[in-house]
Amino acid sequence: MIGTRPWLLSAPALVLFLVMLVTPLIMTAVLSFNSFDFYGGIKPTFGLGNYADVLSDSYFYEIFGRTFMIALVTTVIAALIGTPQAYFMLRMHPFWRSVMILVVLGPLLISVVVRTLGWAILLGNNGVINEALRRFDMIERPIKMMYTSGGIVLALVHVMVPFMILAVWAALQRQDPATEKAAESLGAGPFTVFRRIVLPQAMPGILSGSLIVFSLSASAFATPAILGGRRVKVASTTVYDEFLNTLNWPLGAAIAIILLVAVLAIMVAWNRLVEKRFAGVFQ
Amino acid sequence: MIRNGLFAKLFSIVFAVFMLAPLVVVIGVSFTPEGFLEFPPSGISLRWFRAILDNPDFIEAAIMSVQLGVASATIATVICIPAALAIGSGRFAGRDALQALFLSPLTVPTVVLGIAFLRFLSMMGLNGTFWGLVFCHVVIIVPFVLRLVLASVTGLDPSIARAATSLGASDWTVFRRITLPAIIPGVVGGWVLAFITSFDELTVTVFIVNPATTTLPVKLFSHITQTTDPLVASVSTVAILFTVALMLIVDRIYGLDRLLIGEGSR
């Protein structure tokens, strides 16, 4: 009775996950080994042809390179903004802190499509930013921000920075504010206190936040699809095109599996690195 | 408590502007009297809000999103409560693997989940059906519900349930009278977070809808990628107001930071 009870309680969720998650993922992996031709559709053959196609084509290298570069830059910027912001929030007056919590967490609950629409209005050639700069005679020609990797990074930072703040916030909650006071009483300036006292204690949060932000950015879809379109393609928008426009499902599945494996490999490697480098921090 | 200096205050103000700017322009643009996106609007007009009523597509998509969110959040909550009780109250062989499986949809890139569901549903002949969508959404939102319910289950005192059992209460009575009332904040919080996640979901849903089951985010997405008129802004504004209202209610009864950060963060 004792042995089977947890399994009975978990059975509904377990069955659902086996049917609706494990089976579809296996079917997708199988699909990526099938072949495709434009007249006959998907052929139930079994081979590495799609992977060979992707890995031998510089076009796909460019797409994966861009995907991971965007994710990396987004992660670094989110850490640079999110870490000090989480620290400042901890020291705010309770009223302003609860206002900032709404400002940080509220956008998380609003659809990414809506938020990205806002960035499209801001970044367009006739958008809010370019119009404002032109009105003050700071530029003659609009700065191109739509359909660039830079625009995608900017909007992704906006989507991702709350996750970084949440992670750093959780880490800083565990620190003892007396350590800061001690450093201050010994003559350390605010920047020294931040760098020598706060930052080391925030490190576990920054590292786990970076992992979340990187993996979400590498697989983000709505933001690159709206702000990059067909001109600045990333892995997820390429998969979308293969599935819903070109209809070459096996090739799309192979690209998706490569993305999945790459993201998982980077996450495992990052965890290893963090555990080795910062073993002391997590104790 | 050490207070923030001038730099910290300026940094926070600039950051708040950055976070709110895209939402402010969407709301601003939706009040334009013109036929194109302009900010700041040259006047105040409700023209594009009236236009929503002339486009029943958007209203149908919004109703579909609400139905989908309610159905999938409810199913996810119902299956997560027993699973969380099993995982949260004691060790057993395979427990860590089970928990890892239930949280795994967070790690798999959503686009991969999207095509996996598309492949599966089209082979089953369920592609584009409402219940096909519901069960895909359940898989995506289970991690969110499980984490919140698990957080409140781990705070339970097992001796209370044992006392009830020793007094002759059946397992079901213990669950109904003792356990459920104790974990109800986590359950409600989990349901709301699941509903919002389902309501906003795009990347997976875009692969598995058909014109009859299009959700609001998918409708907005396809509209934005084809044309840009202020209609998308007015629909988005209504969606923002709906979310903000929901958010304020949740913040009152449960606490927004607890919902998104987890138990015990206060």
TrEMBL record, chain A:
The identity of this protein, by name, is: ABC transporter permease
Q: Which organism is it from?
A: Jiella endophytica
Of which family is this protein a member? Belongs to the binding-protein-dependent transport system permease family. CysTW subfamily.
Provide the protein's localization: Cell membrane
Q: Name one GO biological process term.
A: transmembrane transport
Question: Where does the record locate the signal sequence feature?
Answer: none
Cellular component GO terms, alphabetically? Answer: plasma membrane
Task: Return the CDD domains for the record.
Answer: TM_PBP2 (cd06261)
From TrEMBL, chain B:
Membrane topology term: Multi-pass membrane protein
Q: Name one GO cellular component term.
A: plasma membrane
Where located? Cell inner membrane; Cell membrane
Recorded superkingdom: Bacteria
Question: Do you know which CDD domains this protein is assigned to?
Answer: TM_PBP2 (cd06261)
Pfam families in the record: BPD_transp_1 (PF00528)
Leader sequence range is none
Q: Which Gene3D superfamilies match?
A: MetI-like
Keywords, A to Z? Cell inner membrane, Cell membrane, Membrane, Transmembrane, Transmembrane helix, Transport
GO biological process terms held by the UniProt record: transmembrane transport
Q: Where are the transmembrane segments?
A: 7-31, 62-88, 100-118, 130-153, 174-196, 231-250
Concerning InterPro entries, the annotation shows:
MetI-like, MetI-like_sf
Instruction: Give every ABC transmembrane type-1 domain span.
Output: 62-250
PANTHER family per the UniProt record, alphabetical: INNER MEMBRANE ABC TRANSPORTER PERMEASE PROTEIN YDCV
The similarity annotation says: Belongs to the binding-protein-dependent transport system permease family.
What's the protein name? ABC transporter permease
Which species?
Answer: Jiella endophytica
